[in-house]
Specification:
- The complex is a heterodimer of chains A (about 525) and B (about 80).
- By secondary structure, chain A is an alpha/beta fold.
- Chain A has 14 helices and 27 strands.
- Chain A has a 5-stranded mixed β-sheet with strand order 11-12-13-14-17.
- Chain A is globular, with a radius of gyration of 25 Å.
- The termini of chain A are far apart.
- By secondary structure, chain B is mainly α.
- Chain B has a single domain, classed as ACP-like (Non-ribosomal Peptide Synthetase Peptidyl Carrier Protein, Chain A, Orthogonal Bundle), CATH 1.10.1200.10.
- Chains A and B meet through helix 8 of A and helix 2 and helix 3 of B.
């Protein structure tokens, strides 16, 4: 941590000299700290913690417990397999198993790049990702499970440790960290607007910039903490949920694959008395009817992430977590996991249409609210959020065209990523999230934010039901707004009346649909694309 | 109420909520075996079951249900 230099006025010459010497010392100390900070390496810190806390509990997966020694026993095995192989990109099949996490660590320790393939993805999608990424080998625990088209011949290695009792709890050590690797740390493939997944490569330098900033958020966490990892490994929040605890010597608890995720998450938080949890708001939305029977007094921090967080939902959940600080963390995958943070106060939460503020930029990131031409906008004026800084990817994997569409070099010489998120900065400098740019539509020349209509619908139902507005275009390319409510079908006369009273006529949806439950995508976000198909 | 009677009622509830006429549950059935039974529909199913049998499950009880048999035993227990 850096501290600021304060020079006090001196009383006499002797004191002045002493002060000068002290000041010089502080400046030297500061520069050493800065150098140390620049060299900070997330993987090297995990290596130190693994050696220091060898007997500590590293991970709990499906109620099985693994110490750092046991985890790193598997890491060493996988490391030996992949270390001298040609090629940088290692494919790993996502399974809720210790071997999967060990494979990710081994890949990072070896200075290589990991790409996650998911058993639930269609084989064609996995094959496309494997080909695009140029995977040199595949790590999995079941060699018989085909997840790639047979024509693609990639060497497969079985990482399975069939009986975990066989993992010796004796000193095995930690493999050396290849620090100066130019390879990326990971490539996350996200769905592209053209239907073909696009790769977001995150370098080790991006990851370390993220790590420096994340540490500065001031968490009071150490080797005694018990922390949740609930995210799919194909989603980047999993990276911090799993790796950050290991830098502290703390314990990571993953969510069982069977049953229902939202129930499993609350169950793990409760039965293992976790102290830190980053969760998607959908977990809270689904367990809302049980809030009165949930009590998590041990939870010190709850991070809400992955989608916009309803103020009302959080306020209702607060009594369940009486001792937790609640933090909203926002960031596109392209900017390495998170790049803004907002500590959500118990009262007086800053919000826009009920969506919690996203706060202030991470320490090394710069944010700009810009109009359609990329020109900066003043305080309180909505525009697209552009981000720049060392956490930002260089460009999409082998896709200069898509990169050129979203990366913008401004006159200050810096490269900015156009997030597609609409935001404004309030008078206190806090960033307010206003929804996706692509949920903004124009009807009869009027600019409409779908979030605003959704907000009014939720107000009508006193936040008891979720609602989305889907713009659909007819044969004449005319846009019609379809309101979809997560609720049993009912008469809509009163709702329409309410909307007519609260919105300009052009904003009142032309059709109203009811769906008993909204589909979610792999990142636990409401899947607007699928909803739009369901109502057609 | 016998387990078989409860399963018959559950079949009707599941068919209605999941909009699938061919659902036939057994004591061993889990979410894995029933298409459409996921986190979201589970919330709706539980609420419909509570209404139908005039009972209320606690969060702890719902977490412990591993299959339809567990659900039936809990319903029988609550109706005593």
């Amino acid at each position: 941590m850096l501290f600021s230099l304060v020079v006090l006025p001196s009383l006499n010459r002797h004191e002045n000299e002493t002060n000068k010497r002290e000041s010089a010392k502080i400046i030297v100390f500061n520069s050493i700290l800065m150098m140390a900070e620049e060299k900070m390496d997330l993987i090297a810190d995990i290596s130190i913690a693994a050696a220091k806390y060898a007997n500590h509990l590293a991970m709990v997966i499906e109620d099985k417990k693994y110490s750092y020694q046991q985890l790193f026993h598997i890491v060493c095995q996988v490391y030996t397999t992949i270390c001298n192989r040609e090629g940088d990109v290692v494919g790993i099949v996502a399974e809720n198993r210790i071997e999967t996490y060990a494979s990710i660590l081994a890949t990072l320790f070896a200075g290589k790049t990991y790409v996650i393939l998911h058993p639930d993805f269609p084989i064609s999608r996995n094959t496309h990702i494997a080909k695009q990424a140029g995977i040199c080998c595949l790590l999995c625990t079941d060699l018989t499970h085909e997840i790639l088209e047979p024509a693609l011949t990639i060497p497969k290695f079985c990482t399975s440790v069939s009986d975990f009792e066989q993992i010796p709890d004796t000193e095995r050590g930690v493999p050396p960290v290849i620090k100066e690797s130019a390879a990326n740390a990971y490539i996350i493939f996200t769905s592209g607007s053209t239907g073909e997944p696009k790769g977001v490569p995150i370098s080790r330098s991006n990851l370390n910039a993220f790590y420096r900033a994340y540490r500065k958020l001031g968490w009071h966490l150490d080797e005694t903490d018990r922390m949740l990892q609930m995210f799919e490994l194909t989603f980047d929040v999993s990276v911090v949920s799993f790796l950050y605890p290991l830098t502290l010597g703390a314990s990571v608890f993953t969510v069982p694959s069977g049953g229902f995720k939202y129930l499993n998450v609350i169950d793990i938080l409760d039965s293992y008395q976790l102290t830190f949890a980053a969760i998607a708001p959908s977990v809270l939305r689904l367990s809302r009817s049980y809030f009165q029977s949930i009590q998590l007094p041990k939870l010190k921090y709850m991070v809400v992430t992955a989608e916009a967080t309803d103020v009302d939902l959080l306020t209702a959940f607060r009594p369940c977590i009486p001792n937790a600080a609640v933090v909203n963390l926002y960031g596109p995958t392209e900017g390495t996991i998170y790049c803004t943070s907002y500590t959500i106060p118990k009262t007086g939460i800053k919000h826009y249409n009920g969506m919690t503020a996203i706060g202030e930029p991470f320490s090394e990131m710069e944010m700009l609210i810009a109009d359609e031409d990329g020109a900066p906008l003043p305080c309180n004026v909505k525009g697209e959020l552009l981000i720049s800084g060392p956490q930002l990817m260089r460009g999409y994997w082998h896709d200069p065209e898509k990169s050129a569409l979203c990366l913008l070099r401004r006159s200050d010489g810096k490269v900015y990523y156009k997030t597609g998120d609409l935001c404004y900065r309030d008078e206190d400098g806090v960033l307010m999230y206003c929804g996706r740019k692509d949920t903004q539509v124009k009807i009869q020349g009027f600019r409409i934010e779908l979030g605003e209509i959704e907000y009014q619908v939720k107000q009508f139902y006193e936040n008891a039901f979720n609602a989305v507005v889907i713009p659909l275009y007819d044969d004449n390319h005319l846009c019609q707004m379809h309101l979809v409510i997560e609720k049993k079908e009912e008469d809509t006369q009163q709702l329409v009346q309410y909307l007519q009273n609260h919105l300009p006529a052009y904003m009142v949806p032309s059709k109203i649909h009811f769906l008993q439950s909204f589909p979610l995508n792999a990142s636990n976000k409401v899947d607007r694309k699928t909803i739009s198909k369901l109502i057609r | 109420m016998e387990t078989s009677e409860i399963i018959e009622t559950l079949n009707l509830i599941f068919r209605k909520v999941l909009k699938r006429e061919n659902i036939v549950l057994s004591e061993e059935s889990t979410a894995h075996d029933v298409p459409g039974w996921d986190s979201l529909t589970n919330m709706i199913l539980i609420s419909e079951i509570e209404k139908n049998f005039h009972i209320h499950f606690s969060f702890r009880e719902i977490v412990k249900f591993k299959n339809v048999g567990d659900l039936c035993r809990s319903i029988i227990e609550k109706q005593k």
